[in-house]
UniProtKB/TrEMBL annotation:
Catalyzes the reversible reaction in which hydroxymethyl group from 5,10-methylenetetrahydrofolate is transferred onto alpha-ketoisovalerate to form ketopantoate. GO terms for biological process: methylation; pantothenate biosynthetic process. Pathway: Cofactor biosynthesis; (R)-pantothenate biosynthesis; (R)-pantoate from 3-methyl-2-oxobutanoate: step 1/2. The active site is at E189 (proton acceptor). It comes from Niabella drilacis (strain DSM 25811 / CCM 8410 / CCUG 62505 / LMG 26954 / E90). This is 3-methyl-2-oxobutanoate hydroxymethyltransferase. Binds 1 Mg(2+) ion per subunit. One of its GO terms (cellular component) is cytoplasm. One of its GO terms (molecular function) is methyltransferase activity. Its main location: cytoplasm. It holds the Pfam family Pantoate_transf.
Amino acid sequence: MSINKEVKRVTTHTLAKMKAAGEKISMLTAYDFSFARIIDGAGIDVILVGDSASNVMAGHETTLPITLDQMIYHAQSVIRGAKRCLVVVDLPFGAYQSNSEIALASAVRIMKETGAHAVKMEGGEEVVDSIKKIVSAGIPVMGHLGLTPQSIYKFGTYAVRAKEDDEANKLRKDVLLLQEAGCFSIVLEKIPASLAKEVTESLYIPTIGIGAGRYCDGQVLVMHDMLGINTEFKPKFLRQYLNIFEQATTAVQHYISDVQSGNFPNEQEQY
Ligand SMILES: Nc1nc(=O)c2c([nH]1)NC[C@@H]1CN(c3ccc(C(=O)N[C@@H](CCC(=O)O)C(=O)O)cc3)CN21
Ligand SMILES: CC(C)C(=O)C(=O)O
Ligand SMILES: [Mg+2]
């Protein structure tokens, strides 16, 4: 299948084997070529071109405003930088909820115009028909349950989901429906660790958690959060590995003062 044999690509089948072997799956978001190159080169299994681009790239309050065209632009940039990992693209709000034909058309546009390997969509029972249609067309689908940010105005808050029995029971059913519909993996966002453990054990497809505890088959974070580019967002589940905001601010301040003092450029830095 692969014409370019330089590197062995992670596929949805790799992830299935990893779950079977008890190997944890690492996933991070990326939205552009340069960061995709860093993350892929570091050895990540999966890059998610998340609709969180709406927040961290465009500065919106929620994920709702980002369009399919804008997601396609981000995915095209990421795919040029990602040589080894699996690249999954979020279907944005409005690109799949109306009916399964619109959902398929949106997924086809992503596959055709970006070269990405899979799509992700939020929801359970409500989107099962769309998932089946997309999977039948040969497009791998990742599910997303628990806190689903495209429905934030229905929930009203970003608080932990499925703490009560009725919502937990719906999630228990939804994971099985998604698996049956053909999803290759499911993101579980901000649910109790005990529930994530239980549903992870009930599935043969891997779960990828964010704020869903240590028992998921893999973990995902938004790159800008874990690198400390975006420092306003500090939920309990986030581990920050760098503080780029602070370091970049210091670097820019040094540059400004070097320009102002005439220290930059020096003799070696001119022609
Ligand atoms: N930068 C960024 N990081 C993300 O993880 C992310 C996005 N954007 N945008 C899309 C969704 C939204 N997500 C979220 C949003 C908020 C919380 C959260 O825990 N917020 C509050 C708590 C709010 C409450 O309890 O009511 C917090 O502690 O920061 C978690 C995940 C995850 N995704
Ligand atoms: C938080 C992850 C799972 C996501 O959907 C996104 O970044 O858009
Ligand atoms: Mg998303």
